[in-house]
Amino acid sequence: MTKIHREDNTFVITKNGMPYHVLGGMQEYAELRDEYAANPENFTEEYSYKPTLKEIKKAACEKINVVRKEKETAGFTYMGKVFDSDDVSLQRLLYAAQSAALNPDFMIEWTLKDNSIIQLDAAKVQEAVEAFCIYNNALHQKAILLKEAINLAEDAAGVRAVSWENT
């Protein structure tokens, strides 16, 4: 016969090859409780895993990193238009900015996130890069503040109260 002591202080025993959940108030409960008190080694402890506050904080900070990355690559606004901001698009924008820095007469047709096209001169390309840097820095600063709030939280509820959407 297997005997399991559960986290909620109930027991599970095997009867006729089937598990049987023994609750307080049942006749078997008093017997099992007394036996458990006398010989706990005869029971298998069954507890659900509860992460530590440190683990909860670490997971919350990792979630902040994921949300930040999603927002970094979701696009940024410049001139009232949404520019792509995935890694390849940013690399292209930086190449264009380098070219624009060498050629004051630089002009390029730029495809936006919604697939519309605009004309960018040398100054506008440089400003687009600057707009992304400002946008990205704002995301970075927000992530820092949220992680600080998570690390200052005194319990799991305090950690759960901190989220990107709530700020």
How would you briefly describe this protein structure?
The protein is α+β, with helices and mostly antiparallel strands. Helix content is 50%, strand content 20%. The protein has five helices and eight strands.
Structure description:
With 167 residues, this protein is α+β, with helices and mostly antiparallel strands. It folds into 2 domains: 3-46, no CATH class; 53-166, Helix Hairpins, CATH 1.10.287. Helices cover 50% and strands 20% of the residues. The chain is built from 5 helices and 8 strands; from the N terminus they run E-E-E-H-E-H-E-E-H-E-E-H-H. The protein has helices at residues 27-38, 53-72, 87-102, 122-152, 156-160; strands at residues 3-6, 11-15, 18-22, 44-46, 76-78, 81-83, 107-111, 117-121. The strands form 3 sheets. The protein has a 4-stranded mixed beta sheet, covered by helices on one side. Strands 5-6 form a two-stranded antiparallel sheet. The protein has a two-stranded antiparallel sheet with strand order 7-8. Helix 2 (53-72) runs antiparallel to helix 4 (122-152) and helix 3 packs across helix 4 (122-152). The chain is rod-shaped. The model has no long low-confidence stretch (mean pLDDT 92).
User: Helix segment count?
Assistant: 5
What share of the residues lie within helices? 40-55%
Rg calc: 29 Å
Order of the strands making up the biggest sheet: 3-2-1-4
Q: How many beta strands in the DSSP annotation? A: 8
Low-confidence stretches: none
The span between the termini is: 54 Å
Q: Name the CATH class of the largest domain.
A: Mainly Alpha
Order of helices and strands: EEEHEHEEHEEHH
Q: What is the name of the CATH architecture of the largest domain?
A: Orthogonal Bundle
Biggest β-sheet strands, sense, barrel: 4 strands, mixed
Number of domains: 2
Give average pLDDT, whole number: 92
The CATH topology of the largest domain corresponds to: Helix Hairpins
* Structural class by SSE content: alpha+beta
Residue share in β-strands = 15-25%
